[in-house]
Amino acid sequence: MLVKMVRVGLTFDKDEAVAIAISSLVLSIALTAGQWGAARFSAAEGLKNIAIAIPAILISLLVHEFAHKISAARYGSATKFSVSWLMLAIAGIVGVLTSGAVIFAAVGASMAVKLKRIGFKYPFVGPHTQAKIALFGPLASLLLAIAAKILLGVFGDVRFLQDLFIFNLWMVFFHLVPFNILPFLAALLKKSTEKAVQPFDGAFILGGNPILYVGFLAFAAVTALTLVFLPFWVALIFGLIAGGAGWVWMHSEDITKLPKVG
User: What pLDDT sits at residue 182?
Assistant: First the structure.
């Protein structure tokens, strides 16, 4: 079974593990930047909150990236997580400056790679397939946020669950932004920016399947927003209604007139 999993790319290599570990530490510092004492500064409290946040964020990143890998394996391909050190630095700075109020959770990208297996050709991963692979990450983050919301209702305001809930909401938000700054930076800096800034998942989804993007964006955005104020089942109902409306609207529009992303 382990050999089979390795063949279909359902494991993390050393570079991915290091990138995820460092990202978890930096994002934990960003998330807890405003949790270093209520009345006065407390190093002990701040370090304790970072220690609680690290596993919450580590789990979130691993689940998000593993969802990409599972989706890619269905198409005979694999994904590799690549962190953007520039985006990670921005995430840390933004978190500190806003005292953890804003978490720039998209600090890298999972790119579909060719995975050669004996007796098989290299799989073709076109924009439509890449869109489906990219979709599974934000979907997994949304499901984690819903799970955290349910557990908060059962166990109360546990810090770990709060961190898990808040961070995954930010994961959903940033990863669904159809953001691709690569062409702009390449022109501005007059050099390759592939390893500096990667497109968000939303750019791959919109570029490969606009109907899927709008439908899922409406569902995820409404569900995530209402989760903050309403029970999870009410949020899901509102999200499904919004997603269905977005899907129907896109089917009624001429999508060939939409701008291309990527």
Answer: 47
